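thought: fold this chain, then report.
action: predict
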Amino acid sequence: MAVAAQGPAEVISGAAAPGTLFPRGADIGVLNIFGFDTVVAYREDAREIERRVSAGTAELTNRRALDLLMNLPLGEPVPVTSLSEVERRALRRMPKGTVSRHGDMVVRQVTQPLKVDLAVVPGRSWTAAKEKAEWFTPFCARAVLIEGPLRRREDAMMEADFYGIGLLVATGRDVEVIVPPRPFVRRRYTAAGWQFVEDAYRQLCPTSR
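observation:
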């Protein structure tokens, strides 16, 4: 069966044994972000998703809301008076189920609903796919799936190893892991990272909202 007939997600998930390319228990999906489709391995936080559904929490898309949430510890009361004026304005417009108020204290209830472990960018050439994979550098591990002959194989392998980007090549039903993706190490938590997760949640778990 040709790769194009299956689609990159089916090819990758069918060829990769659990615990090798993808973490055990990870789900596989297709995410359209940064203007192109990417195959991602992700794991849901079932408790948080159930809590959001029960609370009727709307989509978290407002950047100021995410900025505020990043500055509130989960489950710990924070004096409202310690917030900036911008944060207090954002607090008044927070979606239901994200924070709770107790007198002059505010408590963050919401957390990230899933974790994206790996993004695999399909492409016909290493150079083009690598450029797209680099968009995911702040958020998760990265790899590219070359659909067809890999030209300048040695050069591609050296670059993949240098940048920590996994290099996979699809041939028919088989996927060869030429260079494994480097494990992701989060340097810091940011509102942009949380927004990335919320975008993924909106697409990958539409029935949970």
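thought: worth noting. The CA atoms of residues 15 and 174 lie 6 Å apart.
final: tokens above.
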